[in-house]
Amino acid sequence: MRQTVRQKVITLILGLVLPVLILIAMEVVARFELTTSQLFVEPKVIFETLVDMIKGDELFINLGISTLRVSIGFVLGGAAGLLFGTVMGISRTFESYVGPIFNALRQVPVLAWIPLFILWVGIGEGFNISFIAVTAFFPMALSTCEGVKGVSKSEMEVGAVLEFSRFKQLSTIILPSTLPAIFTGLRLVLSITWMAVVGAELVVSSEGIGCMMYRARQQLQVDTVLVCILAVGLTGYTMNILLEQTEHYFLRWRKVAG
Amino acid sequence: MSEQGVWTMDVNKEVLKLRGLAVPLTLLAVWWIMTNNEWVSAVFLPPPETVAATCVKLFLKGKIFVDLNESITKVAIGFLAGITAGFVLGTAMGLSSTIEKLFGPLFNAVRQVPILGWIPVLILIFGLTELTKIIFIAMGAFYPMTLNTFDGCRQLKKEYLEVARVFEFNRLRLLWRFILPSALPSILAGIRVSMSEAWMLVIGAEIFFKARGGIGDMMWEAKTRVQMDIVLITILIIGVIGFILNHAMKILENRLLRWRSSN
Amino acid sequence: MNQRGTLDIVNLNKTFNVNGDTTPILENINLKVRQGEFVSIIGPSGCGKTTLLRLVIGLENSYEGEILLDGKRIKGPGLDRGVVFQDHRLLPWLTVERNVGLGLEGKRNGKGMNKQIVQEHLKLVGLQGFEKVYPAQLSGGMAQRAAIARALVNQPELLLLDEPLGALDALTRMYMQLELEKIWQREADVTMIMITHDVEEAVYLSDKVVIMSSRPGTIKKIIPVELPRPRDRASYDFMKLKEEILEEFQLHAENVFSYAI
Which CATH class is domain A41-257? Predict the structure, then answer.
């Protein structure tokens, strides 16, 4: 829907109403000390903390560590899931053997794996990476499997008629058809791995943004906690945008096909 | 399970079931062998018999039911609160573009932050109480519900809208007869996702908030005391309950959405 | 002459405005339909016949000229004008019974009365027994019959049909033409205005065939069909009328024509 300039401005203003109200409320509560808890800080303080943390290394180092963990886990778990899911989708034999236990393990909520992993892997970096990788594995495998299975029968028949080799079938028919589902899986995995990393860092405080939040909370530093949240949100958002751009690049043909 | 894989041929159902058991049974056998021959320390992985025995003991003692009850109560309250709020906001945003523009940006911004990230803030504001956990769970249930309801309410096709106009339906009847029924599939999916989310978050809440009670707490205690068998059992229970909830929801969906085309 | 169900279209013009460019869609449409008449509108693709119908339905509102039902200007869609769309548009989440009764909701007829009216109309279209069935389980022809029943429950003055049989296969279509005529005859007062691209269908069913030309849409010719009913598709008069209409489109009756309209 094309909007006139006036409509666009109204949309923008409406969107800002709530955030501005919240900022004002925080200001008022903090300035006039309306609550007994000392936890409500003025927005100005938060901003100052933000600037300080950016200037110092703390924020970026921790953020970087968390992002690195997410990326590694994402890649490891995602790749494994991609492979596993493809095989499951392609070979019914494989699926009939492996499917039930895969689905059973999938029922366990992500966070419930933490204690087990801690007991098995300890609380070092190994824990972080392996835990995140596992959380990435399941959704990726599932999305890929569904995507592969969803390859239209008529397209496969074209391949059969043209006597494609198995490899060619895979690369020219199955893979491109599955790409949309794979990207859906990737988006899902991205948000899950971010949650996993924050969870892991809250529990096993080494470094990372989650850990920073934890310590700040213990020291009742609300401003730091809020800055961390902002940082995590922005980073997640940025990664999401990058993913979307990649998706658009790879799925250009979709738009042309209508 | 699918009826046909992409490459391999169809096999009958009985064989499928047997195959499905093959891997778990093999793993079970391996587990038994490894632990009984002490290739693996019992601390790391207790033998299956021990786990089974502990499981029976736990159920007989009965405390596990108290814990389960606690967790389920928290989930229920948080979940219901979350989906109610989600339904209200989702419908409002779906029906009124003004409301969408008011709440949308903030909603999407907050959505970027993983729900666990809010734990420190919640603890600071509300303290380490049961209420905080419930609010946390409600937040988790709130998001998927809002998104799905929002999508659902916008789904009504133009063609059906014209039917409503031809039959002189006022706004209220339009909502009741057209918009909500057409949104129902999305709404039910939203409830299902919220339920899974809430169940996961109650475990998370019990782990991260480290207050008393609940099955997540039981699992955490077991971890601290390096009681692997209990950890395994709790994982099993949590998984089973998650599965039951999901499955029950799917059955409900199928019942309520009978009108969808069958094959 | 304002009998119930009389439609007067006077000097109707409609243009489409995009960024200052105006394209005429309908030009100088004048049409009078009497009570109880069956009128078909036929024309090539883009001639505006659907737009014309939508204006009479009230789903589109910007035009110059007058559209009068019983002498009064129409103001938007209403229960006095029943509509049958090409895609039946039955609500998938309601049973056939509830779909057909859609127009009766909110009327204080009393529940028993409504149910009876629905039953009568199901009988009228030959769908008794299918009350509790969902639209997804119906065939195309059955769904369309339900849509017709739905449009008639409120006893509208006009029944407007937008290529009602267009989505059906050829055999079902011929069967449905018979049914449509029967239904119309049983609902004695209803004025029917139907858009179709099937010349034979138009000649078979109508009292008048309105031929439109395209770009801009105007009424080229109105051909009365005064053959006795039920009509014999093979009779000389029937074929002659068909030929007459087809000539307007520069086509000959020998071909089974299937140009897309």
Answer: mainly alpha
Q: Does residue B256 lie in a domain region?
A: no
C92/B contact by beta carbon, under 8 A: yes
0.95 surpassed by complex ipTM: no
Chain B residues whose beta carbon lies within 8 Å of the beta carbon of residue C92 = 259-261
> What is the mean predicted confidence (pLDDT) over C48-53?
90
- Domain residue extents for chain A: 1-39, 41-257
Contact, A129 vs B259, CB < 8 A? no
Confirm or reject contact between B260 and chain C (CB < 8 A): yes
Q: Is B40 left (phi over 0), alpha (psi -120 to 50) or beta?
A: beta
B113 inside domain: yes
Q: How close does chain B come to A142, measured CA to CA in Å?
A: 12
Per the domain annotation, does B205 fall within a domain? yes
Closest of C152, C30, A67 to residue B167, by C-alpha: C152
What CATH code would you report for C7-248?
3.40.50.300
Size of interface B-C (CB pairs under 8 A): 59
CATH number at residue B202: 1.10.3720.10
CB contact A243 to B (< 8 Å): no
- Each domain of chain C, given as residue ranges in start order, spans 7-248
C25: enclosing H helix or E strand: strand C21-33
Find the DSSP H helices in chain A: 5-31, 43-55, 58-90, 92-106, 113-121, 125-149, 153-161, 166-168, 175-203, 209-218, 222-250, 252-257
Q: Mean per-residue pLDDT for B133-138?
A: 92
CB A193, CB A210: distance < 8 Å: no
Q: Distance between CA atoms of A136 and A186, rounded to whole angstroms? A: 9
Distance of CA A105 to CAs B219, B236, C153, Å?
A: 17, 9, 55
Q: What is the domain range of residue B81? A: 59-250
Q: Cα–Cα–Cα angle for A37, A38, A41, nearest 5°? A: 125
In a domain, B263, yes or no: no
Residue with tokens 């859609």: C102
**pTM exceeds cut of 0.95:** no
According to DSSP, the residues that pair with C223 across neighbouring strands are C209
**How many angstroms separate the most distant Cα atoms in chain C?**
55
B159-197: pLDDT as tens digits: 999 999 999 998 888 999 999 999 999 999 999 999 999
